Amino acid sequence: MSEPVLRLAEPGDIPTIEKLLAAEWLPPMMIAEFLPTFWVLDEGGRVVGGAGLEVYGPAAVLRSVVVDPSLRGTRQGHRLAETALAEARRQKVQRVYLFTMSAMPFFARYGFRPCTMEDFEPSVRESWQYRGLSEMPEIRNRLTPMRLDVDQ
Q: What is the pTM of this model?
């Protein structure tokens, strides 16, 4: 089987991206608002993975890195993460933040380190994820915030 095609997401991909995210307990929201920096893996016309980058000036949030269970262990998640981080560099983003429940080792490979929500800079505190988690301590306490200082 050939490798899935990595491409920018299109509006018609949103329902499938939402299903992939919901199946992995990731928030299936605010995709359309960030579609220009959302990528998918396309396997014969079927979306089998996705990742998004929300840019807030000098900082960004990496979110929704997900692959279909059939692709686990094939490095497709790495393709998505690397693509998003390359876009962050292209846009001169200096720091990238994320929240994870169980993927700390995956993101640590890229240099992400645990941080606190207080470490998030003001521009990223305007993100829907930060604002939402600030109001939901029962969920926030199950997640690990992480930060990456981006090499230009």
A: 0.93
